[in-house]
Amino acid sequence: MAREHSRGAAAAPERDHGRRDVAERRNTERQPDAPAAGEHRFSVIEGRLDLASRVARVLGTTLLITFIVGLVGALVLHATIIENQRDLDTQRQRIARVASETEEMRSELAELEAPARIVSEAREQGMIEAPSIAYLTAPAGMLDHRTLVVAANDLRGTG
């Protein structure tokens, strides 16, 4: 480098001329299928690049398949959730209907068990109120059929 500085500006054109000669020789020595100056020719490089492209292809395919399977799984899960929600809504409607029917039946039962309704129904069927209330006392021994008949006759006054 020190020599180049000592020659000065006159040495620079010689260097440029030398480079041009080398470039011209290369252009004339080119093979017919070689690209012209400024053109690039691409080719597959065997070896590690091929392995890398295979790994990238396998990884990409695996990711794509995983994505598709995940998407299908999400769709199936969503469909299942919708179906279960529909079943749940149906069951809630059924529970509400049964609860309403139960409440109606309880109200009807309370009306049927009311003492005033029982008395009016008994009168419609011909029953009369007893003129007096009589209490029976049973003897200390066993009550047999004959004792019960006698007690019933005493109450009727036919004794």
Task: Please explain how this structure is put together.
The chain is 71% helix and 0% strand. It is mainly α and 159 residues long. The longest helix is centred in the middle third of the chain and has 66 residues, at 48-113. Residues 1-6 have low confidence and may be disordered.
Quick summary:
By secondary structure, this protein is mainly α. Helices cover 71% and strands 0% of the residues.
Spell out the key features of this protein.
mainly alpha
Distance between the termini: 158 Å
Helices and strands, in order, run as HHHHH
For the report, how would you describe the main beta sheet?
Answer: none
Q: Could you give the count of β-strands?
A: 0
State the helicity in percent bands.
over 70%
Residue fraction in strands: under 5%
The DSSP helix count reads: 5
Determine the mean pLDDT. Answer: 79
Given as residue ranges, the uncertain stretches (5+ residues, pLDDT < 50) are 1-6
Rg measurement, Å: 57 Å
Mass-distribution shape: rod-shaped
The quaternary state of the protein chains shown equals: single chain
What structural class is derived from the secondary structure elements? Answer: mainly alpha
Topology:
Layout: H1 2-7, H2 11-29, H3 48-113, H4 115-124, H5 145-156
